[in-house]
Amino acid sequence: MEKWFIRNKNYDYRKISKQFGVSEILAKLLVNRDIIDDSKIDLFLNPQMKRLNNPECMKDLVKGANIIIDKIKQQNRIRIVGDYDVDGVMSVYILYKGLKTLGADVDYVIPDRVLDGYGINIEIIDMAYSDGIDTIITCDNGISAIEQINHAKELGLTVIVTDHHDIPYKEENEGKTYLSSNADAIINPKQMECDFPEKNLCGASIAYRLIMYLYDILNKSSVKDDFLEFIAIATICDVVDLIGENRIIVKNGLKALNNTNNIGLKALFDLCDIKDRDIGVYHVGFIIGPTINASGRLDSALHALELLLTDDIQEAYEKAKELRDLNDERKDMTLMGVERIVKQIETSSIINDNVIVVYDPEIHESIAGIIAGRIKEKYNKPTIVLTNGNEGVKGSARSIEGYNMYEELSKCKGILKKFGGHPMAAGLSLDSGDINNLRNAINDCCSLTDEDLIPKIYIDMELPIEYINFKIIEEIKILEPFGMGNSKPLFGAKGLKIQKAMLLGSKKNVLKLILISPHKGQRIEGLLFNDAESFIDNLTDKYGKHQFEKILNGIENNINVDILYYPDINEYMGNVTIQVIISSYRFR
Fold it and tell me: For residue 64, which of 248, 235, 209 has the smallest C-alpha distance?
């Protein structure tokens, strides 16, 4: 059972409405997203590229750029070291294409997820040294590689770090002491000494700022919009908040993505059956991103990078097919892994634990995090999925609201060989003999109550269906693109009657309802996706099978339902109507 909460933030919505020429509904939606200051509201409503902050105020960016210019002039060899996820691939692409345009002698490496692990390592540095590389530029990694980068400096290499991850620190009596390597330039807005206003950027966005600055001072500004779609993909897939500068990038980047000239992306769109769609956040986050990610999970992220870099149409389609097939394999592996884990949980005492710790040696370590996320969603419990790695047991953890996974793992650090992460996600490794010890320890110190484990849904406001009109729907679209930090608005309506129900789709898993307002008798269509069976079961449990048969036949019935929904426009065979997409419901 879910708990519903209405966001009630006290603010003068009428003032925002009048000042910015928007409805009070939109004003409340902005306040609910903590977009309150006049400057933030103005930036949100007018997300133009020219409003990005000047990259010069990012610590070490100018310094790093000047080093690069000097290396280009001397034709010193530069090597980019990236990461195997979407953000890492896009970061390498931007740096490589940008530096090539500027005449640099540059190449790249991307660590193997399983063999190398995350980020730059000693082996990569030694190989660069033996290959005659002069300068290493990291992207989407490097801020925590203190020992590795200091080793590179001892070898006489120049190192520039571009990263967006949290700054490492050690706890001392006086508090936190932040740690740093001896890199020649460290470009990361999260550094305490960095004056750049926007801290929550993805790695590709930081690589882009460096290239944009180089383009500006070297008079290459005419091609600086070439990277917009790639930063947008990275920003969406790295799940950073889509407000402030990230909103500017994604809003404009999606337009660029829909008009891209990149042969590789176009081939990928075609093979993923989205070529003729208006590509949005959903397509990037759930189709394009996972397909690109699949190469780094199951093979090498270099395949994804080569797809973006190719100028040959035939090669583009071959690479795109390779990525699509890898993603299909990843989906099958994930589905089978989830099924095995669920069976293990429900046939053991694990089902009674508040923190799920489960081990399956057959799971590929690269998809342990995906499976942990699915299990967390199913049970609404913090979940750790463990499997076999190259050096013992490795795992991924996913958490729920109110449970700081990193802090809770810290309490068990005596059992773990290594761990890292943040409140909602973490990675860890341990000896196989300590799996049960971890399960017991993390549950023994768990303070979650039964109340904490009830899923919570936050509603923007109650909005009876008779208030929905085309104007409101069009105004809500001003808030797009939706994502982390700017969730799709969610409205509530109470006591609706159901005039008729229809099962749609080849699998009969979509439910179409004709809903009637209890106040003015207004009718509206509602769609419930992928939950028709549960709806029918819950309805018959509450009202009986005969009442369900009545709504199937459009006969008057006793059913009353509250819904949470998002209003939308349905266009079909020239007819344009208003409908609501139902995300949750409860019978009265």
Answer: 209
In angstroms, the CA 466 to CA 484 distance is 29
Using DSSP bridges, classify how beta strands 356-359 and 383-389 pair: parallel, antiparallel or unpaired: parallel
Q: Which residues contact 50 (CB under 8 A, 6 or more apart)?
A: none
Q: How many CB atoms lie within 10 A of CB 261?
A: 9
Flag whether pLDDT at 1 surpasses 80.
no
Q: Amino acid identity, residue 247?
A: R
Contacts of 548 (CB under 8 A, 6+ apart): 501, 536, 539, 540
170-181 pLDDT per residue, tens: 877 777 888 899
The amino acid occupying position 99 is L
Placement of tokens 């979407």 in the chain? 86
Report phi then psi at 458, rounded to 5. -105, 125
Three-state DSSP at 25 gives helix
Average pLDDT of the residues in 12-22: 95
CA distance linking residue 1 with residue 515, whole number of Å: 23
Instruction: Characterize the bridge pairing of strands 175-178 and 418-422.
Output: unpaired
Sequence-separated (6 or more) residues with CB below 8 Å from residue 76 = 105, 134, 135, 158
The closest alpha carbon to 275, from 243, 307, 320, 227, belongs to 320
The burial class, CB within 10 Å (0-12 / 13-18 / 19+), for 501 is: buried
Residues 478, 45 contacting (CB under 8 angstroms)? yes
CA–CA distance, 93 with 232 (Å, rounded to integer): 13
How many Å apart are CA 134 and CA 455, to the nearest integer?
53
Mean pLDDT of the chain: 94
pLDDT at residue 226, as a whole number: 82
Provide the 10 A C-beta neighbour count for residue 551.
21
pTM value is 0.92
Cis peptide bond upstream of 481, omega within 30: yes
List for the chain the helix, strand, coil content (%; round to 5).
45, 20, 35
Spatial separation of the C-alpha atoms in residues 166 and 415, rounded to whole Å: 24
From the centroid of its chain, how far is CA 480? 16
Q: Does residue 40 sit in helix, strand or coil?
A: helix
The pLDDT of residue 222 is 62
The closest of 462, 482, 476 to 564, measured between CA atoms, is 462
Which residues, in sequence order, are bridge partners of residue 169? Answer: 178
- Give every CB contact of residue 309 below 8 A, 6+ residues apart in sequence: 93, 96, 97, 264
Residue 384: C-alpha distances to residues 248, 337, 367, 542 (Å): 35, 13, 12, 36
Structure tokens at 171: 């706890």
Neighbour tally for 509: CB within 10 Å: 14
Residue 489 is given by DSSP the state: P
